[in-house]
Amino acid sequence: MKVPLGITTLHLSRKSALLLLLAVGLLGFGGYDYVQQSRAVNDAVAVQATITDARVDRLDGGRGIDYEPEIHYTYRYQGETYTSEQVFPSTGIRTYSDRSKAESIVESYEPGTTRAYVSPADPDDAFLIRERTPFPLRAIAVGGVLSVIGVLAGLGAENPGQQELRPASERQPAPRKSWVARHGATIHRLSKQLLGICFAGFWLSMVVLVFGLLNTSSGFGGAPQGIQAELLGPVGLPLIAAFCFWVGMILSLCLYSIWSFTEYQQLRQRLPASKPPSPFRHPSRLVTILGTEDGSLSGYGKRVRLTGWALLIAAGMTTALAYLLYTAG
């Protein structure tokens, strides 16, 4: 599918078109929710509310266990009585993976009188905490990243990574091998073995962690303070082991990427005289190759695809680890 875009044209595959549709949906919903929350926060007026019930609800979903502060209250505005259970000025609910954060909100709204906020344009939807939730900005950020990926895929060449290679004997003169190239077989073997060991060790640590949580007196739904107190116990040790194995997987992927990039450089020397631009210097070509199936790529394209995915997975795992450490701190 061809889509005109200014002075150029996007060549979109079915995957790229679906990705752009998802990106537009996230950008639209995130932008709408951000505007709605901003308007509610800026235009809200304070009213007196009566808390009738306040508790923490446990939600078991596909991503794991989340906790929602559920607060029921009544309030009067311009002579009318309303009921609400909305805590933030958002179209959706806000949940927490840490029970203590949800409990801290509920503890601030024990049954009794408190202050709520009402938008004059929509008095049915009051809220208790006058601040925006982070969801709209997260949706906009994810939609922005997906839109960039989709546009780069559309700007790339239609059939990159399909160039046939010349025989290795035709390389004249023979290039001087780097240290990585000379020890490539060893580096490749060690990176794969380390990745396998760390992958198995990480999931084994997760299993031990589950049994450790089940054996605590409070279990999954108990107070997190009691679990944190035994950092070197049946919960803390599996967490430390899982952290180490996770870092080991990142290092093994980086090691594999170094070896794979060296292989890519050697294969690139076997391309015909009219070499295409390097995918690692032209993101649009790299994104297109990453989304192409192996059966449609030459040996050169397959090496680019493996190298790119290894780097992306290592970067994603590093980002996830940094985010977890930041939230834990």
TrEMBL record:
The record's InterPro entries line, in alphabetical order, gives: DUF3592
Q: Where is the DUF3592 domain?
A: 47-131
UniProt source species: Haloarcula argentinensis
What does the UniProt keyword field contain? Membrane, Transmembrane, Transmembrane helix
State the name under which the record lists this protein: DUF3592 domain-containing protein
Keyword Metal-binding included in the entry's annotation: no
The residues that cross the membrane are 194-215, 235-259, 306-326
